[in-house]
Write a structure and sequence with these properties.
Length: 337
């Protein structure tokens, strides 16, 4: 299963729609590939395959490089393009574990039988989440983008940053021309001149900057820096799968010690895995707002996500206010201390 990659297009072809986040009509065409054990309950760790979501170049792919031994259960790692898709896949009972920002759980919270449970918090970088403008843009502040075409990624931190910046500037959603795009489509649109600004995140920021893009604003002071690790409720409820999840997150936590210790080594490892230039990753590491630390859930983290949810509700991006507390589950906290 290692190396399977799912994009929004893959999920949409299986009947999963990000618009409204409906799972109606889901087929087994795509997501069943993530589910090697189906609904079977393993009798022991030796019999179990833990289904884990990852991203391209994500820390979860570097257990071996970090000197972490293989676990006593099998791992099926599936690559996703975004946390919103991971949340959908968990809800489709196709994944046991995945990481995402504070935003995706908010969009699935009200779904009947929602499976997404937040089990830990990764405190990480927010300087790699930015508003970019093209080379030569006259914009000096976000308010200068009134009436302009602004790209963003729906139901992600990019979406939230855009909402917050509009609030700060005293602008309404209707005061700009918002364009929802995937990161890859956004890069093409930005480079072609089809966007006047782009709210985006990750190493793609450094690719755009090398081509002349300018950072108008980073997310420092907007985002909390909380990135969430989540598990399926049914996986947490199953004793054997729960044991595997606890073991997995304790191993995952140690990967960040390895990352924080040597940014250049981490950049070279990611270049080898992704083909993206190590210098982009090294620059991202040098400019990061904080080291990456994976830990248990906290009241402060719950309050932070509630504030994010309230922002989306106030903007009518979600239909009603969401109480995020039921999303949080502390059963793995002892493995993260």
């Amino acid at each position: 299963m290692t190396g399977l990659s799912l994009s929004r297009r893959d999920l949409m072809s299986g009947g999963l729609s990000i618009a409204g986040l409906s799972l109606a009509g889901l087929t087994t065409v795509n997501l069943a590939a993530c589910s090697p054990n189906g609904d079977d309950k393993a009798g022991s760790l030796d019999d179990l395959t833990l289904r884990v979501a990852t991203y391209r170049g994500n820390p979860e792919s570097f257990f071996g490089e970090a000197g972490i031994q293989a676990p006593p259960y099998k791992l099926a790692r599936t690559q996703f393009a975004g946390g919103n898709l991971i949340a959908e896949a968990i809800n489709a009972r196709a994944l046991d574990f995945g990481g995402m920002s504070e935003i995706p759980p908010i969009f699935v919270a009200a779904q009947p039988g929602n499976q997404v449970r937040i089990v830990g918090v990764l405190q990480g970088d927010v300087n790699n989440q930015v508003v970019l403008v093209p080379k030569g843009s006259p914009a000096k502040a976000f308010k200068d983008l009134k009436g302009k075409r602004v790209g963003y990624v729906k139901a992600t931190t990019s979406h939230y940053i855009l909402l917050r910046l509009l609030q700060e500037a005293g602008l309404a959603w209707s005061d700009i021309q918002p364009v929802a795009l995937s990161p890859q489509d956004g890069l093409a649109a930005f480079q072609s001149g089809a966007l006047d600004a782009w709210v985006i995140y990750g190493v793609i920021v450094y690719q755009a900057r090398e081509a002349g893009a300018r950072v108008l604003r980073t997310a420092l002071g907007i985002l909390s820096g909380n990135y969430l690790i989540t598990a399926a409720k049914e996986a947490l409820d199953d004793p054997v799968r729960f044991q595997a999840l606890g073991d997995y997150v304790s191993r995952y936590k140690r990967v960040f010690d390895w990352i924080n210790a040597d940014g250049d080594r981490w950049a070279r490892a990611r270049e080898k895995a992704t083909g993206v230039k190590a210098e982009y990753y090294a620059q991202e590491f040098r400019e990061k707002s904080s080291p990456s630390i994976l830990g248990p859930i906290s009241e402060a983290a719950i309050a932070s996500e509630q504030a994010v949810a309230d922002t989306f509700a106030a903007a009518k991006i979600i239909p009603t206010r969401v109480d995020v507390r039921p999303l949080w589950d502390d059963r793995l906290s002892s493995f993260l201390k």
